[in-house]
Amino acid sequence: MPNLTNTIRRKRIVVHLGNIGYHDTSTKKEGEVYYKSTLPANQIKTHKYAKRFRDIDFIGIDLKKYTQFRPKNWMQMQLDFLDGLKKLENNSIDLISSEMSVGYYTKGAKEIFDETYNRQLLNLAYQKLVPGGKLMIALTTPRLKLLRQIIIESQFPKRKRKIKLMTKKEQERTYWLQKYNAALKPEERYAYYQIILEK
Ligand SMILES: C[S@@+](CC[C@H](N)C(=O)[O-])C[C@H]1O[C@@H](n2cnc3c(N)ncnc32)[C@H](O)[C@@H]1O
Description:
Order of helices and strands: HEHEEHEHEHEHE
Helix content: 25-40%
Number of helices: 6
CATH superfamily: Vaccinia Virus protein VP39
Strand order of the largest sheet: 3-2-1-4-5-7-6
Mean pLDDT: 90
CATH class: Alpha Beta
Bound molecules: S-adenosylmethionine
Number of strands: 7
Shape: globular
Strand content: 15-25%
Largest sheet: 7 strands, mixed
């Protein structure tokens, strides 16, 4: 008799950091810090992916509130990146990804680069990934320069670190990847990079 527990595949778990994104500031109420997203659900990456990959569980971590429809395989935590990651089991996550979020923000969604915060984030991500799991971060050149030393000093093995230019298609993956450069004059536009770190 084959041992079924060894043959049944574990469900894959994917974490999206900073996945909610866009807000219309006119909807922000007085004194409200973490106001809700007003982006249509079908433009949020986690929504699209959770509908497409039903056999994968998705966990979003974002300070913004998300109140719209979620497929059953999408769980959303309204938390800081570090606080959300701490809630996950060690060695349990297959992929952690972020677009225009990690490397840009620190506690309270403050848009400043905090070296200690980012070091903690990379360490935590490493802890939470399964062996062979990946951390993928999409960002522009200035933020890549700021993160570079932290990546070099991280626990991710040197031979399993990749940084590559994103293709045009990849740059359409999220709302802010599309909009960030579009708001700039052509000569001011940044290159988008994809960092891939494997445990
Ligand atoms: C520029 S948006 C990017 C959204 C989406 N990934 C995209 O590319 O369209 C950054 C997101 O990160 C979230 N965020 C910023 N700082 C955060 C933090 N410290 N913890 C959790 N979420 C944070 C914001 O609420 C926002 O949803």
